[in-house]
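Input chain follows. Return structure tokens only.
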Amino acid sequence: MTKIDIKSMNLSELISFMEGLGEKAFRAKQIYQWIHEKQVDSFEEMSNVSKKLRETLEEQTYLTALKIEEVQISKVDGTRKYLFLLEDGNVIESVLMRYKHGNSVCISSQVGCRMGCRFCASTLDGLVRGLTAGEMLDQIYQIGKDIGERISNVVVMGTGEPLDNYDNLLKFIELLTDENGINISQRNLTVSTCGIVPKMRELADKQLAITLALSLHASNQEKRLSLMPVANKYDIHEVIDACKYYFDKTGRRITFEYSLVGGVNDTDEDAAQLTKLIKGINCHVNLIPVNPIKERDYVQSNAGVIEAFKNKLEKNCINVTIRREMGRDIDGACGQLRKRYRERTTKE
């Protein structure tokens, strides 16, 4: 018998499941509270649930509980990078970033990634599988328990393309923002995509209050093609139109992520083309000094070039910030810690 993933069930699904076992609805609410409010890692910890019911749950369901395999802590700013071991032996990464406004966690949505972005370590070995809603959620739960503090902001911007795991992403959002669980506001959630246009439009139609971040990384179609294979399928103007559609449907300002690669997309001409491309959109541009990885020959733009690029956008009334580099003394770039772990364990 295939066991049911109980952490990925919403409350109404859990009520139906419990009623199917001949239990009252209040039992489902108790169990849901243990899973999502008290965040237990086993059925054994559910002290007000009968032993018989706990045994039935053990037989018919499984409770996702990620194991912390490794933690790297930055000596510079306290950023924590977590390597989690999944039940099937795969590993994923998550990052905790501490800000004045609260604790922010960047989670993974897939094991690996098939998008092939040239400057990203996450995609080097391709996609293994999508994460379940429970596995996405448990990254936040385990980090919160590890530091003993509340997580107030979540960014789905780690390994994987969230919109390539669309159904599980939607369920994750539902569980994350449920008032009966961890109850993080939709406004405190950002989902990043490399630009899967149909899913961007589908997400817009849900009219959620989450922030959509587009990994743009280029000022024109030609350069985007050279950096991001997804541009073969969706032209840069199609992607920008989908962003406009998202804003029209939700009223939520778009974030454009732009990784600055030295000599590739950081010229005066790039700044001018980017301005023309996004002018008039209610947006914010996040300039990211690219994290060099040994498998690629891309280098980070120097500080003067980054500042000049920012100034050119600001002169055209575009809201822009340079992402604060956090955790640079640890394996900061997406996929680096997981890749290093896999190389090490393969040799052993």
